[in-house]
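Q: For a teaching handout, I want to show students what a protein-ligand complex looks like in token form. Below are the inputs, and the small molecule is zinc ion. Please produce the holo structure.
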Amino acid sequence: MEKNRSYAKEKRNINDRCNICGGLTNLTWDHVPPKFCFNSQSTRYNSLLEIHEKQQYTHIAQNGIKYRSICAKCNNELLGSNYDKEFKKLVDLLYHIYTTPGKIGQYIEVQGLEVNKVARAIVGHFLAARNEYIESKVENELRDYFLNPSLMPPKDFKLLYYVYIYNTIMIIRDVAPKKFGKKEYSIPEGLISCINTFPLAFILAHKCKDNAELYDLFDFCSENINDKKDIKINLLSYKYPNKERLRHPYWPCNISDDETGTSIILVSNKANGSVFSQIRDLKKK
Ligand SMILES: [Zn+2]
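A: Here is the structure, written as tokens, with zinc ion included.
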């Protein structure tokens, strides 16, 4: 992958197919993750194959990481004005918990969350996080799910989530991590995509058997978009299960001989929109 394949340099036509509905139209920008996940400031970032031990960010994104990849209708009528609003409630709640002094217990139950909207918000941002329209069975199943409010999440998919405490953003689409050796630090293997950002990280996994002891947001979903559900959050999931050790900020994509890392990552040429970045501060605006 050459350097200029990063999202900002990508010469995508303004008029192109929407990554979500496939309509040929003028494309609009989508912040991934959304602005309310502290992704609104100018930031430095690297693309997937520019990761080094000594992190030096080589590109600058003005006003946060964003992709010009979806049409105004998908962006404004569904994602931004509708599904993201419910996702923001979850982000605000966790922000409050982690910035309020006091001891944090291990689990909370978030009550009355319109979880089908939250799940579609996350899936929508995953779909947006590409520099090109891709026709594939996996992508189409995600599109159908996003666009049809009465569908259950596509089977064979998981939407794993855990608390993320770093001021780093990692966006990865379609890689396959493989782990050899010690299984006590398991990783979700399969075709995975990741959005890591404070306060929650999400792993969208296709045909993955091991949840790595994480909750799956799709397990709480139902066929009625307006259903209110109680979802569980492990507030200590920023650590490896039953360990005191903090997860690596690029987990599960940190390649290392260390037992917490992944042994290899298979990267497809569809991963060109992937981005690593650092947020300047996590203060609420
Ligand atoms: Zn669209």
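A: Two things your students might notice: Residues 1-9 have pLDDT under 50 and may be disordered. The pocket of zinc ion is lined by residues 18, 20-21, 23, 70-71, 73-74 (CB under 6 Å).
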